[in-house]
Amino acid sequence: MTNQATYPIGTPGTPWGPAEVAAWLARQTRRRSYEADVLSAVDALRSRFDVVEYGRLDYSPDSYRLVAIKSRDWNDKLPCVLVTGGVHGYETSGVHGALLFADRYAEAYAGHVNLVIAPCVSPWAYERIHRWNPLAIDPNRSFRDNSPAQESAALMRLVAPFRDRVLVHIDLHETTDTDESEFRPALAARDGAAFEPGEIPDGFYVVDDTENPQPAFQQAVIAAVAKVTHIAPADSHGEIIGSPVVAPGVINYPLKKLGLCASVTSARYTTTTEVYPDSPKATPEQCNAAQAAAVCAAIDFALAHVATSA
């Protein structure tokens, strides 16, 4: 935890240089195992799905295999669904919600869609329970040409062959108390900006695309998740994390402009989920289940509306 008014690295008002990034990196320690938590779970799915290695992160002395789970009976005539988790490695239910969906629910969609599930886009950050990569870069602001983040560039290469055939992309995230106590103060310090305290919403919400809003789709996701965990209310300003609430549990971001993962395809239906694992009203199991429920609801809605319009 960090004092909200200051950050222990850098000079207020001055963006970080290499020395500050090095000082920040020296503070990061491995706290859990990508190999044990993620790769072993993916390996257990190999009898039912294809598993592809779509890149490797080399952050000396560490190296990480990037893996994705794919439908075994891929059919180019079917629409594609992309599920991503762990773009921010510290957002645990994004990773384990994606794995839960793959294990329990993905096979039900065989013959209806081609699934690609990248459960942990940022394994270095997963192990250190952090938002950034070792260069103090946020992968979820780096999905653009000539990306400075290896994690983002690798996922874009994976998606490139089928990006224009993706019907649904659901990107699984969390909003946590450490956003306010650590990560936003660190961001302000890194950029030489003033830190302005905000409010952490208590509950699940989703982020729609300002440039391609799909309100009925977002509400279908919210309705499904409401059966699993509570939905975040708007704050006293009618906002969630500084953005106007446009429907219960829904805010909008310009996904492509911000370089967010949910902009990586040209999918008609995109959403970024946000659960709140620090709530006294939610357990880790509920958070994982909420993510899996969101994925199922997203696919079900899209398939129903493709069928309706066909």
From TrEMBL:
PROSITE patterns: PEPTIDASE_M14. Its cofactor is Zn(2+). Residues 30-310 form the Peptidase M14 domain. Keywords: Hydrolase, Metal-binding, Zinc. Transmembrane segments: none annotated. The keyword Zinc applies. It holds the Pfam family AstE_AspA_cat. It comes from the Bacteria. The keyword Hydrolase applies. Coiled coil: none annotated. Gene3D superfamilies: Zn peptidases. Belongs to the peptidase M14 family. This is M14 family metallocarboxypeptidase. It comes from Dyella koreensis. The lineage of its organism: Bacteria, Pseudomonadati, Pseudomonadota, Gammaproteobacteria, Lysobacterales.
